[in-house]
Amino acid sequence: MEAYRRRGATAIVVAVDGRPASVMAIADPLKATTARAIEDLRRRRMKVVMLTGDNATTARAIADELHIDQVVADVLPDQKHGHVHALQAQGHAVAMAGDGVNDAPALAAADVGVAMGTGTDVAIESADVTLLGGDLAALVKARDRSVDTMRNIRQNLVFAFVYNVVGIPLAAGALYPAFGWLLSPVIAAAAMALSSASVITNSLRLRRRR
């Protein structure tokens, strides 16, 4: 049984008439993209923790193959939930990825719950994000897209503030005492249209992200 576990499989003893007769090994093959996805997350300075209800030997074998340093094995659903809270108590923002019924409490507790599209309905209902196809490589893409989106929002806020900081004093007649100049309604309308166009154009740049 330990030999199977060291190879990343779950060992099951089969008994006949109450006597052990055989050992069966059950294993899910790792997706070809998983190791790369874990490495990509690590390069983005994200700490990867493996939480699993599997035997510690099996979990360690899989973690070694994926180069995951921190492994917590033999955990029950409520314990996964507790580990998420423990990481949050340490000041971490936690993204939890899972696909089973036993992952649902932890998915709901995480700052961002990520369910696999191939997982159970309760996991999908508990999560904030669902990755179609169940490929962890999509998690890296989702993370990068969210970072790009927040950066774009901040840029759009800067555009909006610049237009308003310049436009509102002019519309209020700030230059009238010195120059006798008031903001023309035509120019004001053009500035508002240009403000909206610049924000929309900047947002559309996200479509080019790969």
TrEMBL record:
Keywords: Membrane, Translocase, Transmembrane, Transmembrane helix. Pfam families: Hydrolase (PF00702). InterPro entries: HAD-like_sf (IPR036412), HAD_sf (IPR023214), P_typ_ATPase (IPR001757). The keyword Transmembrane applies. The chain crosses the membrane at residues 157-176, 182-204. NCBIfam families: ATPase_P-type. This is HAD family hydrolase. It comes from Dermacoccus barathri.
